[in-house]
Write a structure and sequence with these properties.
The complex is a heterodimer. Chain A has helices at 12-17, 60-75, 155-166, 211-220, 226-229; strands spanning 29-32, 35-38, 46-51, 84-90, 102-106, 114-122, 129-137, 142-143, 153-154, 175-179, 185-190, 231-239, 242-243, 248-253, 259-263, 270-276, 279-286, 310-311, 316-318, 323-331. Chain A is of the alpha/beta class. Chain A has 2 domains: 19-34 and 229-331, Immunoglobulin-like, CATH 2.60.40; 46-167 and 175-209, Collagenase (Catalytic Domain). Chain A is globular, with a radius of gyration of 20 Å. In chain B, 14% of the residues lie in helices and 39% in strands. Chain B contains 3 helices and 12 strands. In chain B, strands 2, 3, 4, 7, 8, 9, 10 and 12 form an 8-stranded antiparallel sheet that branches. Chain B has a 3-stranded mixed sheet with strand order 1-6-5, with no helix packed on it. The radius of gyration of chain B is 19 Å and the shape is globular. The chains are: A alpha/beta, B mainly beta. The interface between A and B is large, with 70 and 68 residues.
């Protein structure tokens, strides 16, 4: 896919290019003066306001409670040290660049397939997050019912995804879709709350964090023992001897069944996936040819999607507190 | 003090969660489907709001559906104004000179916009292997030979960018409905 050069931005591609360790999933990052930084909250707890407006079926108090549960899920990750504080209700809409993080509903009929979105404001020199606003599109029908409601999207599920962005995570590619018999496309499975395509209305499947999400938030905000209790795998993806940029790498733990994703993030095809549970692990490389690479990379990244799925040249056993290096995954063009 | 504040001016970034769509669904939702070239990209505040948006000027060479005139202005979320940059992840990026196929929706107030963000935008590029102009990414469409749900498999060698003429034919078939679809192996 062709990518145009654009102003410097955001994604872990730049962080990796500047020599920092790339990890599972994507972290947003910024580059300044030849060094890269992940976007993250330095001052904690990260504070947020909730808009005082509800939508049919979801009052402002319902929204507030659902957001509290979703924030609590992220805060409950034992291997991460991230804290949030709800300040109160506000009459201000999301997306006002005012230094205050606001979460709420907004009517955007022109974004007819967008359920929610997050906007960051950050220090471009350090990556320190200063503000993050989240909107949920009130063009859709919403629900906070414990088991979901037919035809309505679950506030807590979508909020969980957007709060993942709020803390500095990008999108995960650990998910699968299918084309339906009657037309249209739907998600059939996701191994990450940060998968960018939503399950259909009526489900609450998105309320749970998976191994990939946990690895992500733990890498951004590691608690005391995280680095010592997990391991990493690194290597290269090549096609005809040349590095492949933007290949999606999945690490499948044969013992637990956990999946954690990462990407080859340099022109010579190098990747590192950190935050992995120790144990025997299989690596797989696949192209992001079923969706929008702009959901994962900056617009100037030349992502190669012309290759077939392939596996690592050897089985690896991820060590506790250490890493396995130089795994080679050779792919061939379609 | 003022200089310090300027250094802290930030770059807002947006990240989205989307409802998925296949190409026929996007085609049916579009009021117009254009083939053309981007001749200008400007940035402005969306009227009546403080949201940043880009206005893409498109010189249309062909319509696969509808007709909005030879030159069309299209609104796309995000953009940069001064030190502020807003990016809605999932919104397509354009630069002057880009050749594109756009699936556009219209509204009573405001410029036309791309249906489903990136799901309604395709690029026309030169395939260095065949020397033909192709449309990428390959559209997600069901093979009419199949029954039941079809898993979208990454790395599927059958899913490759289509030549522009083949892409246009696929769009027309999608708009005409399933009955008119030609089995893939017969093409």
């Amino acid at each position: 896919m062709i990518r145009r050069p654009g102003p410097g931005l955001v994604a872990v591609v730049m962080v990796a290019a500047c020599g920092l360790t790339a990890s599972a999933y994507l972290k947003f990052g910024t580059a300044s003066g030849g060094t890269g930084s992940s976007l993250r909250w330095v001052k904690q707890p990260a504070r947020y306001f909730v808009t005082d407006r509800g939508v049919p079926g979801v009052s402002a108090a319902d929204l507030d409670a659902a957001l509290g549960r979703a924030f609590g899920t992220w805060q409950g990750v034992s291997s991460a040290d991230i804290r949030f504080e709800r300040v109160g209700f506000t009459g201000s809409p999301p997306f006002e660049p005012d230094g205050v993080s606001v979460i709420g509903f907004e009517q955007r009929p022109d974004l007819e397939r967008t359920l929610g979105a997050t906007t960051y404001t950050y220090d471009t020199r350090t990556g320190e997050l200063l503000e993050a606003d989240i909107f949920l599109n009130s063009t859709f029908d919403w629900s906070v019912a414990p088991a979901g409601e037919p035809g309505r999207f679950d506030v807590e599920s979508i909020a969980l995804h957007e709060i993942g962005h709020f803390v500095g995570l990008g999108h995960s590619a650990l998910g699968e879709t299918e084309l339906r018999p009657g037309g249209g496309r739907r998600v059939v499975g996701a191994e990450a709350a940060m998968f960018p395509i939503a399950f259909g209305a009526g489900t609450v499947l998105g309320r749970t964090l998976r191994a990939d999400d946990v690895a992500g938030v733990s890498d951004l905000y590691p608690s005391g023992s995280f680095r010592e209790s997990t391991g990493s795998v690194s290597g290269r993806v090549t096609k005809g001897g040349v590095g492949v940029f933007g290949a999606h790498i999945t690490a499948f733990n044969l013992r637990s069944g956990a999946l954690v994703g990462g990407y080859s993030l340099s022109r010579d095809g190098r990747f590192t996936i950190a935050g992995l549970a120790p144990g025997p692990t299989v690596l797989r490389a696949e192209p992001l040819d079923d969706g929008d690479v702009q959901s994962f990379f900056p617009e100037d990244a030349e992502v190669d999607v012309d290759f077939r799925v392939s596996y690592g040249d050897r089985a690896v056993v991820v060590p506790e507190g250490g890493g396995v290096g130089e795994v080679l995954i050779k792919v061939v063009a379609k | 003090m003022a200089l310090g504040l300027v250094c802290l001016i930030a770059s807002p970034v947006r990240a989205t969660v989307l409802l998925p769509a296949d190409m026929p669904e996007v085609a049916r939702a579009a009021a117009a489907i254009t083939v053309g070239r981007v001749v200008a990209v400007t940035t402005r505040l969306e009227p009546g709001t403080r949201r940043i948006e880009r206005v893409i000027t498109l010189e249309v060479t062909q319509y696969l559906k509808g007709d909005l005139g030879r030159e069309v202005h299209v609104a796309v979320p995000g953009g940069q104004m001064g030190h502020y940059r807003t990016v809605m992840v999932g919104a397509p990026e354009f630069a002057p000179g880009d050749e594109v196929v756009l699936f556009l929706a219209t509204r009573a107030a405001g410029l036309p916009y791309v249906v489903g963000l990136h799901q309604g935008a395709y690029r026309i590029t030169l395939d260095t292997r065949s020397g033909t102009r192709v449309v990428s990414p390959a559209p997600l469409v069901r093979d009419p030979d199949t029954t039941g749900a079809v898993a979208v498999r990454r790395g599927d060698p059958a899913r490759r960018p289509l030549a522009l003429d083949a892409f246009a034919a696929e769009v027309r078939r999608a708009l005409a409905g399933p009955a008119s679809r030609v089995p893939r192996r017969a093409r």
